[in-house]
Amino acid sequence: MSGAALLAAADSAAGGFPLLNALILVPAVGAAVVALLPRSRPDLARPLGTLFAAIAGALSLSLAWQFDAANGSFQFESTVSWIPALGISWHVGVDGISLWLVVLTSLVVPIVLAGVDPHHNPKPYTAWMLLLQAGSIGAFVALDLFVFFVMFEVVLVPMYLLIAGWGYEGRRYAAMKFFLYTMAGSALLLVAIVATAVLGSPDSGLTFDLVTLATTQGLAQNTARLCFVAFAIAFLVKVPVVPLHTWLPDAHTEAPTAGSVVLAAVMLKLGTYGLLRFGLYLFPEASDWAAPVLVTVGVVGVIWGAITAAMQRDLKRLVAYSSVAHMGFIVLGIFAFTAQAVSGGVIQMVNHGISTGALFLLVGMLYERRHTRRIDELAGIQSAAPVFAGVFTVIMLSSIGVPGLNGFVGEFLILIGSFETRRWWTVIAATGVILAAIYLLWAYQRVFHGPPAAADRKTPDLRRGELATLAPFVVAVVALGVYPKPLLNAVEPAADKLLAHLELHSDFKLADPAVPVVVRDSGEHADAESSEGEHSDAGHSEDEH
Questions:
Q1: Cα end-to-end span (Å), the chain
Q2: How do strand 88-94 and strand 75-83 relate by DSSP bridges?
Q3: Sign of the alpha-carbon dihedral angle for 164, 105, 141, 510
Q4: pLDDT tens, position by position, 148-201
Q5: In angstroms, rounded to a whole number, what is the distance separating the alpha carbons of residues 383 and 449?
Q6: How far apart are CA 305 and CA 436, in angstroms?
Q7: Distance CA 21, CA 19 (A)
Q8: How many other CB atoms are found less than 10 A from the CB of residue 285?
Q9: Which tens digit of pLDDT belongs to each residue from 472-495?
Q10: Percent of the chain scored above 70 by pLDDT?
């Protein structure tokens, strides 16, 4: 399908302009333009690539501005028939669950492109980063299973090549391990997608359309459970959860700084987003059936990741294991099946991307100065680089989940929402917050405090360009910690609608009896709304779907 055909799609809700198609095509076209630059002008690659990535970022802000936060349904939809004989269409749309992940992806890539120097071969490096941006956005907005699979696979190649081509000493081993793990999960995903479409399509004909398949629920119970297991394994590898996590520390440690940032901020979210969009929505009964196991896996990841992080001697590897712990919280929130927990899981996806992405940036900047990431070889850097230490402190406290910073919001909602339905799992997971404070504060104390060695006393402070790169992360950390309402306003209606769908098609019952579920004749749900976003027994009105 040509780019012109996509941009000609008239189904978009944004005044006829296919905004989501443009969000995918702009960085994809940018990747092609950068790849075709003459070899004599490699200096143009990063500025040109940053321009295309920034245009996508501006489009994402326009998307967020036009988004109707009160509407829990898919918006800005575009549908173009792609392979009619197989029921495959280019169907994209965005709701409150995917909106902020699209915005995060669109803004992180131009920041790291502008702020991080690849040191060599800027042309292919920039092209791969742009393709990674396009594929990630495509996966977050795809509403056709085949389109999602294509986008899900597109992101693997750029990340593999970024790690192998611009990483550190063990880059080839780490890149191969990353590729093999994720490809194994993708093989299961492809089989499950085909089985779901062939066996679950309505009598009207074969379709890969997510909304149609989720509405009709045409799979037999055991078949749906088997397909869900295959979907879940593919996404849990990407999250990743224990014991499928071993590729992540190697990939993070050996990846270039920008690769680590995008991997943490964007690619890991494909797993948790997939569990929400293609787990709960497509297989509600199977999700309810498997929830205890998945909640257990998430909590094990919280504790295992935190304990292992505390044992690390490499600062970057410590941050990598902290991701395992934080992603475990998100899995717990998703399968707690309460509006607070699911909303908190989505918010935590965004906040983890901001705080952990910034930590990887800071670790990369520290490595550029000291050429080591070993904690026992660093000390007293605060005396030589006080601004560096100050920024690191803010981001570190955000990752710990200190109130007033963004990391607190998601974790608090997950814990308070999960306590209703997964009480003892939540109690155990809450200890992960304490462990996070231990390993991050201990690492900070050893690296930034104490008497500095001769090399540490010469550590340069943050330069203007580095401050400009880190500033958006710091602003987001503080702003979303103090005022997360814009994010929550968009996420909550979509979360409510998803849980209503789960209740309709499974034995699950909403934990809050004050939230009635209105079943339409068409089989869809309408969630009740009340004034100022609070549930009450009276004054409910039916949402339009």
A1: 29
A2: antiparallel
A3: positive
A4: 999 999 999 999 999 999 999 889 999 999 999 999 999 999 999 999 999 998
A5: 8
A6: 9
A7: 5
A8: 18
A9: 999 999 999 999 999 999 999 999
A10: 91
3-state secondary structure at position 524: coil
Which residue shows structure tokens 């997939």? 274
Alpha carbon separation from 296 to 105, 187, 302 (Å, rounded): 29, 25, 10
Structure-token match 């060599």, residue found = 120
User: How far is CA 125 from each of CA 120, 130, 254, rounded to the nearest angstrom?
Assistant: 8, 9, 16
Residue 16 DSSP SS3: coil
DSSP label at residue 36: T
152 vs 333: CA distance, rounded Å: 23
Distance of CA 226 to the CA centre of its chain: 25
Q: What angle separates helix 96-115 from helix 45-66, to the nearest 10 degrees?
A: 160
Taking CA 507 as the corner, what is the angle to CA 505 and CA 508, rounded to the nearest 5 degrees? 95
Q: What is the DSSP letter of 246?
A: T
Burial profile 461-495: b = 16 or more Cβ within 10 angstroms, e = fewer:
ebeeebeebbebbbebbeebbeebeebbebbbbbb
- Tens of pLDDT, residue by residue over 135-163, are 999 999 999 999 999 999 999 999 999 99
> Among candidates 303, 420, 405, which has minimal Cα distance to 347?
405
CA dist 387 and 371 (Å) reads 19
Residue 142 carries which DSSP code?
B
CA distances from 316 to 104, 150, 453 (A): 22, 31, 21
Q: Are 136 and 266 in contact (CB under 8 A)?
A: yes
